[in-house]
Amino acid sequence: MNRHNSLSISKPRIALLGMGTIGKRLAETVKGIPEFELTGVGVRRLTPALIPIIQAGIPVYCTDSNDNTSLEGVVAGDAADLLSSSDYVLDCTPRGTGAVYSNVYNNYNLRMIYQGGESSALAACNYCYGHGYNEAISAPSVRILSCNTTGLVRIIHSLSSSFTVQSVRAVLTRSAADPDKSLKGYVNNILPSMGVSHHSSDAKLFWPDLEVHTQATYAPVNCGHLISMFANLKGIHSRYEILDVLRSSPRIKVIEGRGGLTDLRDVGRGHKRNDCPDLIIWQESVQTFGENVVLSAGVHMESIVIPETLDALFAMTRLELDVNKAMGRSDQAIL
């Protein structure tokens, strides 16, 4: 019998591979959801991110096939031990690694959730902000869209809920690196976009007929990403109508003033690490002219995809068949 259909499993058994910015947050959050069993985390080497994981009693497994002396006395086993005792995998490994591991996961009859660094073609379906939820319930694998695309999808979804969106143009100014990888960033450089970025094709997974074009640059910062968006709507609408719709949308926060990306940490105050899983939009940036609306939004790249990943996990484990209930549970889990 396929173990995913077995009635004997009381809790979904979840393995997590990769302890970077996304992995460490998901490990802590999944551990705190009583309906899930986090069987362990798989890592290549010992890093400071493992300290709270070890302190929480979460088993650590070594995914490096070579002997790794840094994990001696810490590991509970190797990757085979972890995967053979699990039913689902949260792949939070570096970009492209999930594709390398995919055949291994399939050999263990696992269902997988990949992050946005992987190709959209790797997974059976893509999920973001409610889109793709029904497909995720039965899909063997799901890909969560990237942090910038998640922010873009939240805006388009919000506007589309009340208006007819005819086209979208966006420029994405990205942090050169996450805070824990600052040495990989660009100290005195801004890298221009070479043509259209992948974010538009990812958004079109959910709105195939919508005209969407995006460009993206890298800036020498690590505090967040900036979305500068121009949308053409059918009909003329006031900025107050736009603001009312944005304010009523989950996972979007409209804040006052003329701020910057450092506002993300202020808005996130109260969350662990002052994370800001909500997309923030500056009220003063929302302006309309004719049938067009412009706005600026801030993306905390380390945490914005955490609730989306939890949504997909609730879907795949069938703990929530209703997308709105799943999103509510995900948001509650990260408070």
Please outline what is shown here.
The protein is built from eleven helices and 15 strands. With 335 residues, it is an alpha/beta fold. The strands form two sheets. The chain has an eight-stranded parallel beta sheet, sandwiched between helices. Strands 9, 10, 11, 12, 13, 14 and 15 form a seven-stranded mixed beta sheet that branches.
Describe the structure.
- With 335 residues, this protein is of the alpha/beta class.
- It has two domains: 172 residues, Rossmann fold, CATH 3.40.50; 153 residues, 2-Layer Sandwich (Dihydrodipicolinate Reductase, domain 2), CATH 3.30.360.10.
- The chain contains eleven helices and 15 strands.
- Helix 10 packs across helix 11.
- The chain starts with 12 loop residues before the first strand and ends with a helix.
Q: Layout of SSEs?
A:
Elements (H helix, E strand, L loop, with lengths): L12 E5 L3 H11 L5 E7 L6 H6 L4 E3 L14 E2 H6 L3 E4 L5 H11 L3 E4 L10 E3 L5 H6 L2 E4 L2 H14 L4 E11 L22 H6 L7 E9 L5 E9 L5 H9 L4 E4 L7 H5 L11 E4 L4 E3 L2 E8 L6 H11 L6 H11 L2
Parallel strand pairs: 1-2, 1-5, 2-3, 3-4, 5-6, 6-8, 7-8, 9-10, 12-13
Antiparallel strand pairs: 9-11, 11-15, 13-15, 14-15
Helix pairs in contact: 10-11
